[in-house]
Amino acid sequence: MANKSFWITLVSLACLGIYLFVTAPPPLEKKKTESANIPVEEMFAVLEAENDAVRAMWTKEIVGEGKKVGLKFDEHWRDPDMEAGPLPALFLRETGKSLEKNPVRLSLFLGSDYPINSANRFEGLQLEKFQILRQTQQPQFFYMPDIQMHIGMFSDLAVSEACIECHNKHEQTPKKDWRLNDVMGATTWLYPAAAVSLEELVENITALHLGFQDAYGAYIKKVETFVNPPVIGDHWPREGNFLPSLEVFMQEMLKRTAHHTLPALSALVSKKQIDTVEASHAATR
What is each CA distance from 182 to 40, 112, 124, 134, 147, in whole angstroms? Predict the structure, then answer.
């Protein structure tokens, strides 16, 4: 019976990995706290892998290739007279804004000790942990009692000359000597609980995917106001003056995140089943 339950759960999660995040289901019903046996650090790692894949796709496939065909990306992209899209850091910010509107309690922002926007400057314990991250480039996990949040910090590296040039030349930059592969900041996740259930983990992944969807959707909506917009459909900027539709973008997002997320979910399902069997055996002794 335990093996049958395991495979039913596993197949269900595989289906979730393929379809759930695109169809935007309502939030799952809150589960009892006793089922919350996945450390929040493991959830942060799954979410960060998702974010890394999508941000790389945005940076290379949309921004990088888009500039080659004349598309523009700017920090003031939302201004009515600006025909541009969000820079990579602003795409993350749009994703974070979407999470703030979602019933899940997950938060996301990009911070630094030398941010262009002073609101994103690390202070106190966050700054202390970021300094360790800068030296080791190892994720930092800690709890902040003042805001009652568990934090996960992951390195945000200067991965392209375009990022470096933008930051070094910005009129408000506090640092003008960034170099390739420098730790420019940290992708920072916040969650109030020390552990989550498997259902809550899936719920948070879903919320993140909806954040990606909202961020790209906002760009597509802005593009439709351009005087001479690129053709939106099945093609990408590497093929010419094109942009993928929201559906095509999200399908590609699923392909690029599934190879990490589905094995991670499968491993957690397996662990959950083993724990259940062991608990059942212990109860009968």
Answer: 27, 12, 22, 9, 29
Phi and psi angles of residue 152, each rounded to the nearest 5 degrees, phi first = -125, 120
Please give the angle made by the CA atoms of 112, 113 and 114, to the nearest 5 degrees: 90
Per-residue exposure over 60-98, b if at least 16 CB sit within 10 Å of its own CB, e if not: bbbbbbbeeeebebebebeeeeebbbbbbbbbbbbbbeb
Whether the pLDDT of residue 171 is over 90: the answer is no
Q: Please name the residues in contact with 233: beta carbons below 8 A apart, sequence gap of 6 or more.
A: 242, 244, 245, 248
Starting at the edge strand found earlier in the chain, the sheet holding 140-144 runs 107-111, 183-191, 149-157, 140-144
Helix (H, G, I), strand (E, B) or coil at 68: helix
- Strands (E) in the chain, as ranges, are 38-39, 107-111, 140-144, 149-157, 183-191, 195-196, 231-233, 242-244
Contact 234, 249 (CB under 8 A): no
Place of tokens 């201004």: 79
Helix (H) or strand (E) holding 83: none
Chain segment 26-64, per-residue pLDDT in tens: 444 444 445 778 999 999 999 999 999 999 999 999 999
pTM: predicted TM-score of the whole model, two decimal places: 0.85
**Please, which residues have CB within 8 angstroms of residue 243's CB and are 6 or more apart in sequence?**
62, 66, 71, 220, 223, 230, 231, 232, 236, 237
Q: Given a cut of 90, is residue 106 above it in pLDDT?
A: yes
Note the pLDDT of residue 36: 79
Buried b (16+ CB within 10 A) or exposed e, 131-155: eebbeeeebbbeeeeeeebbbbbbb
The two tokens of residue 66 are 């888009």
Strand-pairing partners, residue 110, are 187
What distance in Å separates the CA atoms of residue 135 and residue 196, rounded to the nearest whole number?
30
